[in-house]
Amino acid sequence: MTTATRPEVRIAERAGFCYGVRLAIDKAKHAREQGKDVTTLGQLVHNPGIKADLSDRGIRTADLADQVEGGTLVIRAHGVPASEMTKLRGKADGLELIDATCTWVLQSQRAAKELAEAGYTVCIIGHEDHPEVKGVRSYAGEKHVVVDDVDRSTWERVPHTKKIGVLSQSTILPHKLEEFAAFCLKRCHDLRVVNTVCPVTLTRQDDSVKLAAEVDAMVVVGGKNSSNTKELAVKCREICSETIHVADADELAADFGPWLAGKARIGVTGGTSTPEVDLEEVRDRIYALTA
Questions:
Q1: Distances (CA, A) of 127 to 12, 166, 290
Q2: 140 vs 7, 99, 256, CA distance in Å?
Q3: Is 291 exposed, middle or buried (0-12, 13-18, 19+ CB in 10 A)?
Q4: By C-alpha distance, which of 63, 85, 194 is closest to 138?
Q5: In whole angstroms, how large is the CA radius of gyration of the chain?
Q6: pLDDT tens digits, residue range 239-289?
Q7: 132 is an active site residue
Q8: What strands, in cross-sheet order, belong to the sheet with 60-62?
Q9: Nearest of 242, 239, 229 to residue 279 by alpha carbon
Q10: What is the pLDDT of residue 2?
């Protein structure tokens, strides 16, 4: 009788929470541990387990600034639109504000404001409904455009004008920013491009792609509505066709056994909103399914 060989499961060297997400979560937890009544403006992270943990700790979530009247409010790493921040600062007497906006996102907001004030039409490539993009565009003045990184028909929104400034959502792949900048160059005389792609996102993509080239299958772990996790899955699938995207270990049920069969090396990675413990749980689940 032949005994099946247990696969080697490798977790990408740099995977899991980015600094900005970790800081926002730590600030919310610390405030709660101090006995404060803590609310976050929007979900701090697109991860079911972390959302449940924060809720169990008594940390609430509000979708709009108008829904918060007192206590301690944590601004997530994605940031908020300028009008929301103005409202919140206007409630200073009854509200403690903890701004956990990622420093990289703050840089994008400042760049949008500076470009607009210098007379540039600000063109942002990203996902229009993403909270980070909503925040950045609010600083870009009236003459701004948001285009999609996948649907290139939206690029026709870019006007033929004298001055164009280009920014990107922080999780957009660099080659997409480069291609969009080249497109905008044909529509203006004066082009300024500010590289607002998050370097942490890039290192995670680099490590994940490297791992994908060395394994028989890849499991990308993270929320299904997390932009950077979806981008990571796309990038890994370009290298390793046997790539799947799961929210957590619970998605790897018994019926995944046949998919795992015969694969000697399996890679595991996750987006910047995926905690290390989720990656470890997926690794352990793979071992359990192939025991």
A1: 26, 15, 38
A2: 50, 20, 47
A3: exposed
A4: 85
A5: 21
A6: 999 999 999 899 998 788 889 888 999 999 998 888 888 999 999 999 999
A7: yes
A8: 60-62, 38-41, 71-75, 95-99
A9: 229
A10: 40
Q: What is the distance between the alpha carbons of residues 128 and 75, in angstroms, rounded to a whole number?
A: 20
Task: Dig out the tokens for 79 from the structure.
Answer: 């940031």
Q: Are the C-beta atoms of residues 266 and 219 closer than 8 Å to each other? A: yes
Q: Note the pTM of the prediction, 2 decimals.
A: 0.82
Neighbouring C-beta atoms of residue 58, cutoff 10 Å: 10
Question: How far is the C-alpha of 18 from the C-alpha of 20, rounded, in Å?
Answer: 6
Reading the block at residue 210, the tokens are 């490297």
The C-alpha atoms of residue 68 and residue 45 are separated, in whole angstroms, by 19
Measured between alpha carbons, how far is 169 from 197 in angstroms, rounded to an integer?
Answer: 7
Residues in the chain, overall count: 291
Render pLDDT for 176-229 as a digit per residue (tens, 0 to 9).
Answer: 999 999 999 999 999 999 999 988 888 888 999 999 999 999 999 988 878 788
In one-letter notation, the amino acid at residue 233 is A
In this structure, are residues 191 and 181 in contact, taking their beta carbons and an 8 Å threshold? yes
Q: Helix or strand or coil: residue 171? A: coil
Catalytic residue among 13, 84, 128, 132: 132
* Cβ–Cβ under 8 Å, residues 173 and 231: yes
Sign of CA dihedral 43, 105, 231, 64: positive
With beta carbons less than 8 A apart as the criterion, state whether 188 and 164 touch: yes
DSSP strands (E only) in 152-242: 163-168, 190-193, 217-221
pLDDT at residue 69, as a whole number? 79
Q: Which stretch of DSSP H or E encloses residue 71?
A: strand 71-75
Secondary structure (DSSP) of 98-155: EE---HHHHHHHHHHHHHHHTT-EEEEES-TTSHHHHHHHTTS-SSEEEE-SS-GGGG
